[in-house]
Design goal:
The structure holds two protein chains of two kinds.
Chain A: H1 3-14, H2 17-35, H3 41-48, H4 57-81, H5 93-102, H6 106-140, H7 144-160, H8 166-180, E1 183-184, E2 191-192, H9 206-224, H10 243-265, H11 271-285, H12 298-313, H13 315-321, H14 327-338, H15 347-350, H16 352-373, H17 377-383, H18 388-407, H19 410-428, H20 434-456, H21 463-466, H22 468-497
Antiparallel strand pairs in A: 1-2
Helix pairs in contact in A: 1-16, 2-4, 2-16, 3-4, 3-9, 3-14, 4-5, 4-6, 4-12, 4-14, 4-16, 5-6, 5-12, 6-10, 6-12, 6-13, 6-16, 7-8, 7-20, 7-22, 8-20, 9-18, 9-19, 10-11, 10-12, 11-12, 14-20, 18-19
Chain B: H1 2-26, H2 38-60, H3 64-67, H4 78-98, H5 100-114, H6 120-140
Helix pairs in contact in B: 1-2, 4-5, 5-6
The chains are: A mainly alpha, B mainly alpha.
């Protein structure tokens, strides 16, 4: 199927009323969770995943993908109006967006952020369409050793970009791998770490794990110390940026689209890193770097474009290689597998309807998001005032129903609550959940490829270094790991000497 | 902070030893024919090595505890977390016995109270409305909730 006919068939799929409805529901929920600080797209997708079981895989993936890219739009609203990022990818928008709001320019800040997001999002879908096929062709030539190396690189990049301690991120990734081995070993049929519990024979489900780590733990953290949100009292008007705003923003939007997209394609990349790099680039090349942090519109336009372009770009490694590049897509991959669809090099040919349906839904979803975030911005501003004491019980209730609905078994609820407690403790001890969930999703693939590689090579580990792609990938991973380890070691040494 | 890091590292250290021991029992096989325990053993061995290194560097670090400003826990309500967790575990254990409607009603009241909702009238009304909406919507979507004590005989 060529690009044009594929896209036409995709639009035919997406324009069916039921898929349009799910597309709208996805971007609406995405904007909602983006606007409300707390539950991020990973938690929201985990919570809503059980709801998608009764619908077709195409509609389900359209809904879940919409939540992901929709959350990138909504995240900027809280950054600009409340100075609290709705999503990690909108952290950098706080710097200039909130300053613009304080100067009575909340409208143009929200407007340029919505337009930039639309342009970046649309650019990334076009890029996705053109890049995913050559990459999938290349992926077909890869064998198990290359997949082991690629997974290693993905995890290493995620660890490298971890917000906190590198060593804690490594520990989390290893714990994720261990958790992924729970259940029956697919090669020998031996039950592992189930300790006689029938609930653990199929392994720990991605839904209770994700809901617990990202949903319940968030609620527990908020109960412990309820935060009062202070909304900047300003009227949101003139959301359409003026000519001067456009002149200043067109460069950052163009650069943000390219940067965001290509950083999104990298394993371990995605919306967060794209927004930070875009801000750094804009500040570096600006004639007035001192204006950044004081309400420069370039500091809003660039990162908000880049995070949407990054979100779109990050679908490429998932579709082409079957490797998610961040925690959100790891959960989305889990959702695809639950629906009987395995992403990878043959995904586009075997499930052309789903692939093209999702691509077309991204075009339509981006248009819907522009409408939701410009004329209807007032609704989201009002939603910011919904107190957490009302939201929190609802989040827990949806988690409980979602976990129970998986197998109509309370064991899943118990697993979810337990991982909620684990996630809460992880937050307390400064451990991040992203490397854990990534390693958990990639674990079975890693184990199977690792064992296949050893069988292929008659037990020789040199197979990973004899094949050029695998060797180069492992070398990049090793360099990244050594550089991050070295910086950790230097810090530790400095502390010891003090 | 240093104390917390040592506690968490000891936990992972213990976990790595436990996983190594259990994986060994499953059978490591050989590199030619890897057994079911090889991968978890290998991963937990890595975890063990990292924990040893981290523990050692934390114990060698002398003055770090003095640099860290103590967190202010005066506004922290740890007891609420305990109540919510006990409520959720009890809910899971009793859900099939007493049924979705009753169990969720009690759970929601506890959750609303712990979240800081104070008005009893609003609390009872909103809990009832939420339960009824979720019950009918999810039943329509095909989910079978346990009826427990309200089961029609």
């Amino acid at each position: 199927m060529d690009l044009f006919s594929g896209l036409i068939s995709g639009f035919q799929t997406t324009l069916q009323p039921i898929n349009l409805l799910f597309c709208f529901a996805g971007v609406f929920i995405g904007t909602l969770i983006g606007v409300l600080p707390g539950i991020g797209p990973t938690g929201a997708i985990s919570i809503l995943l059980p709801l998608s079981f009764g619908i077709s895989p195409t509609s389900a993936i359209i809904l879940l993908a919409g939540i992901y890219y929709g959350s990138q739009y909504g995240g900027s609203t809280t950054s600009i109006l409340v100075n609290i990022p709705g999503e990690p990818s909108s952290v950098i928008t706080c710097l200039d967006g909130y300053q613009m709001a304080r100067r009575g320019r909340a409208g143009p800040a929200l407007g340029i952020s919505a337009f930039g997001s639309f342009i970046g999002g649309t650019f990334s879908v076009i890029g996705l369409m053109f890049l995913v096929f050559p990459l999938a062709q290349a992926a077909l030539k890869l064998g198990p050793p290359e997949f082991v190396s690629l997974i290693c690189m993905g995890i290493t990049l995620l660890i490298y970009m971890a917000h906190g301690s590198i060593i804690k991120a490594v520990i989390m990734a290893l714990v994720g791998f261990i958790l992924s081995t729970v259940g029956i070993d697919l090669v020998t049929g031996t039950p592992r770490f189930s300790f006689g519990s029938p609930a653990l024979l199929d392994g720990i489900g991605i839904v209770p794990l994700g809901m617990g780590l990202f949903g319940i733990s968030e609620v527990l953290t908020n109960i412990e110390q309820p935060e009062e949100r202070v909304i900047f009292q300003t009227k949101v008007r003139n959301v359409l940026p003026n000519l001067q705003d456009w002149k200043r923003s067109i460069g950052p939007i163009s650069r943000g689209s390219f940067l965001g997209f290509f950083l999104g394609v990298l394993p371990g990349g995605g919306a967060v890193i794209s927004s930070f790099v875009s801000y750094a680039v804009e500040k570096r090349i600006s004639k007035h770097p001192e204006a950044f942090g004081q309400g420069a519109i370039e500091g809003v336009a660039g990162p908000e474009t880049a995070n949407n372009a990054g979100a779109g770009g990050s679908f490429i490694p998932l579709f082409a290689f079957g490797l998610p590049s961040n925690a959100v897509l790891a959960v989305l991959m889990g959702a695809l597998i639950i629906h009987g669809v395995t992403p990878g090099p043959t995904f586009m040919s075997e499930h052309a309807e789903i692939f093209w349906g999702v691509v077309a839904s991204m075009y339509i979803g981006n248009c819907m998001l522009l409408l939701l975030n410009l004329p209807l911005i007032g609704i989201w501003v009002k939603l910011l005032k919904v107190p957490y004491r009302i939201l929190m019980p609802l989040i827990v209730l949806f988690c409980v129903i979602g976990a129970y609905s998986l197998n109509t078994n309370v064991a899943d609820v118990i697993i979810m609550v337990t991982f909620g407690l684990v996630g809460y403790m992880m937050r307390k001890f400064d451990y991040e959940g992203a490397p854990l969930i990534m390693a958990y999703v990639l674990g079975p693939m890693m184990e199977s490829a690792f064992r296949q590689s050893l069988i292929m090579s008659d037990g020789r580990f040199s197979i990973f270094f004899e094949r050029p792609i695998s060797a180069v990938t492992l070398m990049i991973s090793a360099l990244l790991f050594v550089s991050s380890w070295f910086s950790y070691y230097r810090k530790a040494k400095r502390k010891i000497s003090q | 902070m240093k104390k917390y890091d040592i506690i968490s590292t000891i936990f992972w250290f213990g976990l790595s030893i436990f996983v190594m021991a259990v994986s060994y029992k499953y059978g490591l096989g050989s590199f030619r024919t890897p057994g079911p325990g090889l991968m978890p053993f290998f991963v937990s061995l890595l975890l063990f090595i990292i924990c040893c290194y981290l523990l050692l560097s934390l114990l060698l670090e002398k003055h770090r505890e003095n640099e860290i400003v103590k967190e202010d826990h005066s506004q922290t309500h740890f007891w609420r977390i305990g109540v919510v967790l006990v409520a959720l575990y009890t809910y899971a254990l009793l859900l099939e016995t007493i049924g979705y409607l009753v169990a969720t009603f009690v759970l929601l009241i506890i959750l609303f109270r712990m979240a800081g909702y104070k008005r009893w009238s609003g609390l009872l009304v909103s809990s009832t409305v939420i339960i009824l909406i979720t019950f009918f919507v999810f039943t329509y979507l095909g989910l079978r909730f346990p009826m427990g004590i309200l089961k029609w005989r």
